[in-house]
Amino acid sequence: MRYHGAMMRMILSGYGMARLLPVFVMTLSLLLAGLPHGAAAMPGEKPGEEPVESSGAGPAPPAQYAFLRLFQRSEPEPPPTQQTRPRPARPAAPTPLRVESAATDAVSTRIAVFGDSLATNLGQGLQALMEEEAEIAVSVQARGSSGLVRDDFFDWPGNLARILADEPAFDIAVLQVGLNDRQALRVDGASAAPLSDPWRAEYGRRIDVIAQAFAEARIPLIWVGLPPMQNNRLSTDLAVINEIVRDRLRRSEVIYVDIWKGFVDESDRYTATGPDLAGQPARLRTSDGIHLTGAGSRKAAHFVDVEIQRLITRPRDEIAVARAAIEAADDETARIAAIDMLIRRSLGELPLAPGLLYTARRDPVGPVMPLTRIDVSAQGILLSGTPPLDPATRIITERVLEEGVSPPPVAGRADDFRWPRSP
Q1: What is the domain partition of the chain in residue ranges?
Q2: CB 219 within 8 A of CB 164
Q3: Model pLDDT for residues 187-198, shown as the tens digit of each residue
Q4: Alpha-carbon distance 182 to 64, whole Å?
């Protein structure tokens, strides 16, 4: 073992390698000289042919390939490749469907939704509700982070006025805005604090501009209020904005829809869950405590759909006839009747909204008894009066009630205080 170790150290040293190099070269030359040309072919070569490099450089010297064969690992030939069926060609992407003129003609009511990111949720809910109604088309034209305060970012009053000045492509407009309006407002070149008196006046003026633009275009506008928020401060401020909008719209023909009650609990506080349109508990708000989920969007859209159906189903000509009847009324009675007819035709049917409690109307219990009619018998005695008393009882009653004289005590009764007691 010691001898073999010394031999390995010598071989691995530079001196040993120098001694073995001539022996290695001589052995290699003898092997190359004794190997006949073309005795064996490289895998993939045909006997008698010059091998060709994969790089395409031309034929190589035979000695080079003989030298490579000395260090080539013998591997079994690869199995014959199986012929695989060619894959069918992938079908081309389907072409988009073309909307025929008949489908376009089927749409009789076009609804456009404007506003901020909450309006986007509302528009998606309306689209989900109107899926089965081919005659109603809903388009969402909302702009995130917009409002009525930052007109330098997006001017809603100006943009809506320009849209209405041209030929508008909608019959009913829905607007929900105000989420991003808790900011300072420029009034006469000065900055007004949010919800201050100058701020409220200028904010109300911008609301009036929008309402006036839709009134002049004679297009119904449904203004949707803001829902409560998870942040108490934000929710309180948005409730104030709702009050400002509601107060300004009382002077116009704009329809205001309040959805606040549909997103609060029994204590009138924000809740992320609640009953959906089917009455089942569902998550109505997203994790940010601001926006609406799919179920919440459809629930908010249902409040708006109540007003949309009312606008669609009420005939405009009947309202015009009712207004003409008011103008043509000769006396006050006819005028009141015409006004009542106008109110009934304007309101139409009122469907129930989810989240609100309704008291069912009860039928009267039993017959109605008039209080002014006197029912008497044939003898002249009141049917509903007390039965007549005998003379002795009537005398005792009159002495007790009129003169204050108590009747004599009866032995053994509670008012018998005589002593000693009688047996």
Answers
A1: 106-313, 315-358
A2: yes
A3: 988 999 999 999
A4: 85
